[in-house]
Amino acid sequence: MKKFIIAALVTVCTTSVFAEDYFLINGKKIGLQESQKSVIAKLGKPKFVDGGGNLNWGNNYDDPEITASFNQYGLNTLSTSKGSVIINGKTITIGKDTPNTSKPKVQHYCEGFDGGNSFRQYNQSTRVGAEGEIYISFGTYGDGNTSNKTLMSKPIESIGLGYDDPLADFSSPKCNH
Predict the structure, then answer these.
(1) Which DSSP symbol is given to 148?
(2) Contact 33, 73 (CB under 8 A)
(3) Model confidence pLDDT, tens digit, residues 78-122
(4) What's this model's pTM, rounded to 2 decimal places?
(5) Cα–Cα distance between 108 and 168 in angstroms, integer?
(6) Backbone phi, then psi, for 116, in 5-degree steps?
(7) Of 81, 85, 136, 172, which is most buried, counting CB atoms within 10 Å of its CB?
């Protein structure tokens, strides 16, 4: 009986710890390992499938509102320009939160600035998942004249989820952990 109770407690605690990180898009929760069928049931039929096989929602082919890719395990990448994400029980909302306001919510993160004369971007990423294997990133963008300080105060424009480090191509990302 004691072993059963301990196993039940471990299961409940483990499930609740890893079930916290999810996207909230159009009022629908989308978890990190959802099946393609489940995501379509929640978001509706995609508007189009691009050349790489990604599902896309939104009216603009060049800049869809939501893009999702899947592998044999379920959702592999998700990026969106609307909605919010819940990380460690804290909500980060596109169009409302800025890089400055998101930092205390995620606690551990890496950040980087990139771009040149015509385009500047700021990207912040944090690792989630059982072993920190999943990256959630937040981006904001400006023209070539936009200062780093200004980018930090602009509302977040996109949120992405995936297994690849979104800052891998940035010249010198900084981490606070």
Answers:
(1) H
(2) yes
(3) 999 988 988 888 999 999 999 999 999 988 899 998 887 788 899
(4) 0.78
(5) 17
(6) -145, -135
(7) 85
